[in-house]
Design brief:
Elements (H helix, E strand, L loop, with lengths): L7 H9 L8 E5 L2 H7 L6 E2 L5 E2 L8 E8 L6 E8 L1 H6 L3 E9 L3 H11 L7 E9 L5 H6 L4 E8 H7 L2 H5 L1 E7 L2
Parallel strand pairs: 1-4, 1-6, 6-7, 7-8, 8-9
Antiparallel strand pairs: 2-3, 4-5
Length: about 180
Amino acid sequence: SPVDNIPQNVCVGQTESKLGNNYYYTTIVPDKGALEKIVNSKDIVYDENGVVQVSDKLSAQYVVFDKVRNPETGKIESIKPIHNEHVLKSIVHDFVVIDDLCEGGGTFMGIAESARSVMAEGSTLSLYVTHGIFAEGAITKLLSVYDKLFVYQMNYYHYFMGTTKEQKERMTVKHLYKY
């Protein structure tokens, strides 16, 4: 059967009504790859070191992180904000990290640690992923540092057999699939 390729912004839009009803979320972009999916790549300006530069097209609605991986091990060595870090610190916000895929959650754990170390007291931090694989106890790890978890689609059995009642209360899942 044919497969519909639904752009990420449409998936987020279909889940957005459940992102807190009356809240405005400030988007945290996990890395440069995700940034280029969210913002037209022609609108992103980098300096000679590859650091994202402030431009009219990249407004204060985005806090951008980036990560450094060890090329030999593939392990993440550091994750830090590279654009609009001051927004994390300035006033109370409701932040949501948005990405297309979560497998083990390592990147998102690093972002949460880095963001929470500077976030204004009273701010919230949520995670939205389009495809939730959630291997290796990722849901438990993620919900230890995120206030809410929003997922466009994840496995039906993983959701019903792999999460507790308390975890489900902090999760919103748009589509469950069986395979």
